[in-house]
Amino acid sequence: MLSTMLLDQGFVATDITHQTKAKQEVIRTGAWRCPICTYDNEDSMSECDICGALRNCLVRISQTGDSTAGGGRCKSSGASVMVKSLFASFRHRAPAKSVAFEAKNDAVLIEDAFIIRRNFQEFLRAFSSQKHQNINIAPFKFDSPSPDDLVSTRLHSSKLDSKANFKRLSSLDMSTREREKNILIESELGTEGPNSSSASVARDGGVKERDFASDCGIKPEILVSRMRSVSLSSKSRTGNVNEETGTSNLEYKPEAWMIPDQAEDRLSQLNLAIVGHVDSGKSTLSGRLLHLLGRISQKEMHRHEKEAKQQGKGSFAYAWALDESAEERERGITMTVAVAFFNSRKYHVVLLDSPGHRDFVPNMISGATQADAAILVVDASMGSFEAGLDPIGGQTREHALLIRSFGVDQIIVVVNKMDVVEYSQERFEMVKQKLGTFLRSCGFKDSSVLWVPASSMENQNLVATPDERLFSWFHGPCLLDAIDSLQLPARDYSKPLLMPICDIIKSQSQGQVSTCGKLVTGAIRTGSKVLIMPSREVATIRSLERDSQACKIARSGDNVTVNLQGIENNHVTAGGVLCHPDFPVRVSNHLELKILVLDIKIPILSGSQLELHIHHAKEAATVVKILSLLDPKTGKVTKKSPRCILAKQNAVVEVVLQGSVCVEEYAESRALGRVSLRSSGRTVALGLVTQIMKTQ
């Protein structure tokens, strides 16, 4: 009933002028007319029998003493414009005599010739004693704002102390979404008056609350933004992550322990990839170097020599120090990337011995992506060097292109097997001239390329000055000195953790697994939490190993084994990424690439099926759109939407992968933004990720 609602809202009687009373009360014999529906009631009734309106309007007195109506209510009647309009067409009856009746809560009512003083309880008793009335005053409950409030220009409220009201905000039991919705609705209804107060509205099972936006003296728009920020801060870790882009709203700040101490007495780690054509002597060179530096004991070397002679492969003794599998030894080739360690005077070197056979180029890519620098081994013997540079199947050429595409700009060219050509200076210069021309075309600078003639079988020019046969015409550094002359690339400790997973070692213990890889950015330590992508599982670092030795902290550039706990084996895969829990790497299967096409015979068309390699992941890819061709010198668009891409052309294409991969745009992370495209066992294009598009 409207009367009970008006009482519940706290309206009080006030000083009423004779002019206002003349409009509201007409004293006639036997009846009084309702000011709302104009129904003529018996004078013994204190409220309208039709609409329930009180006989007299209850008008509130402001602090200044002026008589005003509650927001949006008719001053003459005390009822809302909407309610009055509901009864505008109701039939009229002849008025009868009415008796004035007014109530006041602890104040004074002035009625023509007398003054009535009553408190609120006396008013209730007097009102309930009227004939035909039994009124139970209780809060009126709305599931949503009432029609009166919607007509009103504003749901007014008093401005209370902000601290007390924010405490009340935290205790509200309506959801955050409900609050924001209500605030937005209220902000659309009108603006707040300076001396206004609001009617209370009961929500959620009769719990009555004031309009908390105006209670706190805060504009609704400001409160909406604050409520949204509170909502975001109350969410879990994944609440700070954009699910589509994988990006985070947080700002990363590295901790003090992540930055290496300059006074720390530890050799800097250098990741060195050994690449080159098959049978150029890469594994033999690596084994010999490790033996000379004491990483392989004499006892182990004697065992390798004995086993190699038993199988009629005595010259493979040093290679077997790294090629440990039975299949590798039987076939006489390296099939997987072997990892070894040694210390030079300047660096702790991680040696990545990569396979040279064309069938295992994907394994070579996986290992060489971790490299800071590379050793390109070429065979000086007649015919072997030329085979490595052959456009079709020459792995010297393909490995050099791949290494450059991985961001390696420092390279040591070891012209191996110089003993076969009797340490000929002419042969060395010819190799240097031909290969040097090709390396310049790949983007290597002459100042970043070191040339070292050597013989791994005869231990010439590896760790010491060679004998007279070589020293008579070559006066450059030996291989070990050339390694020390390399410059470390910049390490990024200020960015969140990123570690592409090169390999996994499954443990028999449930909930434990080990991962291997190189930290691209950031740092980790024992006990840290990491997020495994793309499975989005969180694990704890149980321990760290570097060079098979336990360590507590690993930083950007370190090649480590990370032992995880609290995660199942099937949630960790090679090609995934370990990252900071609050800063996950992006995952997508739809990429825009800027590519350089190599020497190919079949052009790349829209719909071409390729194999995409990115860090340690590989996926089947389809070229869905060729966007444009680019000028190789300026990078400007020369043709839009071409039909095909030919050899040696630069282009921008869109590719869709069969499965999603962990990826970042090249501008954000170089290591996770470089790709290579292969087809039919050959690398056909090298590229960069320019845009990560919506997953399809």
UniProtKB/TrEMBL annotation:
Record flagged with keyword Cytoplasm: yes
Annotated SUPFAM superfamilies: EF-Tu/eEF-1alpha/eIF2-gamma C-terminal domain, P-loop containing nucleoside triphosphate hydrolases, Ran binding protein zinc finger-like, Translation proteins
Pfam families listed in its UniProt record: GTP-eEF1A_C, GTP_EFTU, GTP_EFTU_D2, Zn_ribbon_RanBP
Locations listed in the record: Cytoplasm
GO function term, MF aspect, one: zinc ion binding
Chain segments carrying region Disordered: 185-206
Major location (coarse): cytoplasm
Domain Tr-type G: 267-491
Any one annotated GO CC term: cytoplasm
CDD domains named among the record's database cross-references: EF1_alpha, HBS1_C_III
Name of the protein described by the UniProt record: HBS1 isoform X1
Protein source organism: Olea europaea subsp. europaea
Lineage summary: Eukaryota, Viridiplantae, Streptophyta, Embryophyta, Tracheophyta
